[in-house]
Specification:
alpha+beta; three-stranded antiparallel β-sheet; 20 strands
């Protein structure tokens, strides 16, 4: 009774789909979060009769064969690379990336991480860091006596001082792009790691080489569409129930077989 195993793979697939949807809904308010989508592929096929086989009875070639599918398997969980809506915060160190690209940060291990979460902070030494304290590349330090900070679309950071009429250039943010953004490895805390599938990090100035620009005083909201996620949740629930009914039907068929006298 193959239906038992086939329906079990279907239930497992729908369970994974629900888990992905639940993670999307949980991150509805996560800054810079991109929704994920579960993708599936059919499993191996049992070739009972191959197409093109010669019929032994009359020598005719069979135009179609008999291929019995054995269920479904997870193929990938891909990231929906879509710009989230920008919300105004008015904070000097809140930066939204309008377009493609990531901010590069230095992790405690010394490796580079990448994020679209622009809710930056100032450390005790004046260094611009993320909410988790990771330094943003390149290192930009804000003097303690700076009364205001300005960041233009190209990522140039200016500081204003009480005793100077003109602002002072402190540095310039850079953005990083990837050939295959969906190939990045998510590590939590709105951070990604480079992988062989993503390709190497390609750094550049904002607004060049297909990279987006920076907008000060804004943050990028999550790209999760709540209505779509709830709709897909209902579909996954019904799919799970249908596969469960198949298991029930297969069990009843086996019970009927064992009761034959």
């Amino acid at each position: 009774m193959r239906a038992l195993q086939i329906a079990a793979t279907g239930m497992s697939a729908q369970q994974m789909r629900v888990e992905v949807i639940s993670n999307n809904l949980a991150n509805m308010n996560t800054t810079g979060y991109n929704a994920r989508r579960a993708e599936f592929a059919d499993l191996h096929y049992q070739q009972v009769t191959r197409a093109g086989t010669i019929n032994a009875a009359d020598g005719a070639q069979l135009p179609t064969g008999v291929q019995l599918g054995l269920g479904v398997r997870p193929a990938s969980i891909s990231m929906n690379v879509q710009q989230g809506t920008l919300i105004q915060t008015g904070a000097d160190l809140d930066l939204a990336i309008e377009g493609g690209g990531f901010l590069e940060v230095t992790l405690p291990s010394g490796n580079s991480g990448y994020t679209r979460d622009g809710s930056l902070k100032r450390s005790g030494d004046g260094l611009i860091v993320t909410s988790d304290g990771y330094g943003v590349v390149p290192d930009i330090t804000i003097p303690a006596d700076a009364r205001a900070i300005s960041v233009n679309a190209a990522g140039e950071v200016y500081a204003y001082f009480n005793d100077q009429p003109e602002p002072q250039l402190l540095g310039q943010f850079s953005l990083v792009g990837f050939t295959n953004v969906k190939g990045l490895e998510a590590m939590g805390s709105n951070l990604f790691l480079e992988t062989p599938a993503s390709g190497p990090a390609l750094a550049g100035e904002p607004g060049t080489d297909g990279l987006g620009t920076l907008r000060q005083g804004y943050l990028e909201n999550s790209s999760v569409d709540a209505v779509r996620e709830v709709t897909q949740l209902i579909e996954a629930q019904r799919g799970y129930e249908l596969n469960a009914k198949v298991i029930t039907a297969a069990d009843q068929m086996l019970a009927a077989t064992t009761q034959i006298r």
